[in-house]
From TrEMBL, chain A:
Its main location: membrane. Belongs to the binding-protein-dependent transport system permease family. Residues 95-303 form the ABC transmembrane type-1 domain. The keyword NAD does not apply. It is found in: Cell membrane. InterPro entries: BPD_transp_1_N, MetI-like, MetI-like_sf. Pfam families: BPD_transp_1, BPD_transp_1_N. It comes from the Bacteria. One of its GO terms (biological process) is transmembrane transport. GO terms for cellular component: plasma membrane. This is Peptide/nickel transport system permease protein.
TrEMBL record, chain B:
GO terms for biological process: peptide transport; transmembrane transport. This is Peptide/nickel transport system ATP-binding protein. It is a peripheral membrane protein. Keywords: ATP-binding, Cell membrane, Membrane, Nucleotide-binding, Transport.
Length: 316, 321
């Protein structure tokens, strides 16, 4: 198990390096002078040179990469070229909002999707199963920014139940929670359907296995068979799906943050790209990739814990 | 509590896309407390279908006709909830394959605690000590530690013992073992048979053992039903069946090579020909195409069940009391 964890973490670090190399290569290959794009065609040459120096774009690309990682190891992700504030501070300010949004959406999706999947299995072949099935497929098909825009129109503009923009007043939990409802729901909705389908499909497979018949032959109630005997096995593919999907949850957070003008990583990256603020782009991408890689590793280790057969393979 | 079991005119068909498979047709069997009943027959003749119907665990595509009464109660007339309450309390089924019978991600102890859910009077600790005692009784050393094992950490023979222990824990009036030794090697098989012989001495409910191993049946059972293509073709005391078989199919089975009874066989000794297609069962005797004694009525008229003695019956035109 430990050897496995070490191997996965090593692989994760490698991915991190590759992503950053690709990012630098992209900047290097993008046509046009970033300083001109950022400052406009009428900026003075001195100003342009200053900006290029600040972003380190005058150095060879490979050296930029080495410098970037050398600094990153000491916790220095560079400085915002406009405000001169440390990128790490900017990311740390924005990150909690995005993580709260993503994790709330995920928690909501799991808390609703898994029971719906179980219910489908317990009532398989009935109207309830069919309704859950149709709704699931329906919500999977709707992109989250569409949900975001329509819910914005309905609940914020027409009904005025929820705030339209922002992340709520700092220090005011109720207003923050209210501001979270729509963005989280917009991201979660499709995932509820996704998870419900996934749980149902893997559960139906498990329900055909002989050990389920054994549990039945001892007269265990159906809810217990579904929620304990089948779910423990059926949840494993769902966990992998969710872990891989977290990347996509975070990227829908980027869109949804834009719709709700909600401060967060999404807004940070979009603004930075628009103003060619490369240090901010690089630092933010590094942090987001690191988070993504850690989540995937954590999911794999969790799967190994849940399934004793997998656990033994890693032990041996 | 233990009572008598009787199935009468029991038929089961499986609905499939290729038409209905008439897996069981007009079967009558009975069993009384203290008896060990054997069910024997070629692969596919409906043995598992019969015992699964008795345990009320048929798959969703099965349609059942006729009646099964246990302790005077008609099981088919009970609602789903009552049927479930009976399972694992009065009726326990030890399934055919010990390799896949247990949930792979839960420990043995955890599962066996759950299987005692009918015993609302016992706490978790008490249930665990019952398990330890029962595992010891079926010959598992170091029971306390084994309880915390996952199924894949136990050998096949050990899992089969656990399966038997699980069934006994519920103190059932009717214990059904569907091919308890088929998946095991010869040594393990001998040990499990030994275990079951010991159990039958102290157990006063009904035991039904399904096997295609004639030796197992001869060693364990009081009475035997011989099945062929979904029908019971002969039934009677073990002695009567092994020494005075009257149905041509039973005779053919025994004639194959009685000396091989004690060997481990993958299937029953082979008889020339194949059993009929159960999608369209023949109108006459099911055994007619393979029977060397077939005569005029056999191909068109279904033979009656002929009573040869108090317990010995055979379904054949050629048999006379
Ligand atoms: N769920 C099902 N759907 C359709 N046909 C089935 C189903 N289960 C069993 N059958 C068919 O019913 C017949 C009887 O099967 P059954 O499993 O009862 O035989 P068996 O005597 O137990 O055989 P074996 O010795 O191989 O275990 C077979 O032809 C089988 O293919
Ligand atoms: S009824 Fe006829 S075909 Fe059938 S077993 Fe008897 S003799 Fe053979
Ligand atoms: Mg069988």
């Amino acid at each position: 198990m430990l050897a496995y964890a070490v191997k996965r973490i090593g692989l994760g670090l490698l991915i991190l390096v590759l992503v950053m190399v690709a990012m630098y290569a992209a900047v290097f290959l993008v046509p046009g002078d970033p300083a001109t794009v950022a400052l406009g065609p009428r900026a003075t040459p001195e100003l342009k040179r200053l900006l290029i120096e600040r972003m380190g774009l005058d150095l060879p690309v490979w050296w930029q990469i080495v410098e970037f990682f050398r600094n990153a190891l000491t916790g220095n992700l560079g400085y915002d070229v406009w405000s001169n504030r440390p990128v790490s501070t900017l990311v740390m300010e924005a990150l909690p909002n995005t993580l709260i949004l993503g994790l709330t959406a995920l928690a909501v999706a799991l808390l609703i999707g898994v029971p719906l999947g179980c219910l489908s299995v317990m009532r398989r072949g009935t109207l309830a199963d069919a309704v859950i099935g149709v709704l699931s497929v329906g919500v999977i098909a709707v992109p989250s920014f569409v949900v975001a825009i329509y819910s914005l129109l309905l609940f914020a503009v027409t009904l005025r139940w929820l705030p339209a923009i922002g992340a709520g007043e700092t220090g005011d939990i109720v207003s923050q929670a209210k501001a979270l409802v729509m963005p989280a729901a917009a991201i979660a909705l499709g995932w509820i359907g996704y998870i419900a389908r996934m749980v149902r499909a893997s559960m139906m497979e498990v329900m055909g296995e002989p050990h389920i018949r054994t549990a039945r032959s001892f007269g265990l109630p159906e809810w217990k068979i579904v929620s304990k005997y089948a779910l423990r096995i059926a949840i494993i593919p769902t966990i992998s799906l969710v872990a891989v999907g977290l990347g996509s949850i975070l990227s829908s957070a980027v869109f949804v943050e834009a719709v709700f003008a909600r401060p967060g990583i999404g807004k940070l990256i979009t603004d930075a790209v628009n103003t060619r603020n490369y240090p901010v782009v690089m630092g933010t991408v590094l942090i987001m990739t690191a988070i993504y890689v850690s989540i995937t590793i954590a999911a794999d280790l969790l799967i190994a814990r849940l399934d004793p057969r997998v656990r033994d393979v890693f032990r041996g | 509590m233990s009572g008598s079991l009787a199935a009468s005119d029991l038929s089961v068909r499986y609905e499939t896309p290729h038409g209905a498979v008439h897996a069981l047709r007009h079967v009558d069997i009975e069993a009384h407390p203290g008896e060990v009943i054997g069910i024997v027959g070629e692969s596919g003749c409906g043995k598992s279908t019969l015992v699964t119907a008795l345990a009320n665990l048929l798959p969703a595509n099965a349609r059942i006709d006729g009646s099964i009464s246990y302790n005077g109660v008609d099981l088919a007339k009970l609602d789903a909830h009552r049927q479930r309450l009976l399972r694992g309390d009065e009726i326990a089924l030890v399934s055919q394959d010990p390799m896949t019978a247990f949930n792979p991600v839960l420990t043995i102890g955890d599962q066996l605690v759950d299987f005692q859910h009918h015993r609302k009077d016992l706490g978790r600790a008490q249930k665990r000590s019952r398990i330890a005692a029962m595992l010891g009784r079926v010959g598992i050393a170091d029971a306390e530690r084994r309880m915390d094992c996952y199924p894949h950490e136990l050998s096949g023979g050990m899992r089969q013992r656990v399966a038997i222990a699980a069934a006994l824990l519920t103190d059932p009036g009717l214990l059904i073992a569907d091919e308890p030794t088929t998946a095991l090697d010869v040594t393990m098989e001998a040990q499990i048979i030994h275990l079951m012989r010991e159990l039958r001495r102290e157990y006063n409910g009904i035991i039904i053992v399904v096997s295609h191993h004639l030796g197992v049946i001869a060693e364990l059972c009081d009475r035997v039903y011989v099945m062929y293509a979904g029908e019971v073709v002969e039934g009677g005391e073990v002695d009567a069946i092994f020494h005075d078989a009257r149905h041509p199919y039973t005779q053919a089975l025994l004639a194959c090579d009685p000396a091989r009874f004690h060997e481990k066989l993958e299937r029953l000794p082979t008889i020339p020909g194949t059993p009929p297609n159960l999608t369209q069962p023949p109108s006459g005797c099911v055994y007619a195409p393979r029977c060397d004694r077939a005569f005029a009525p056999c191909g068109s008229v279904a033979p009656p069940l002929v009573k040869l003695s108090a317990s010995h019956v055979a379904r054949c035109h050629a048999v006379t009391p």
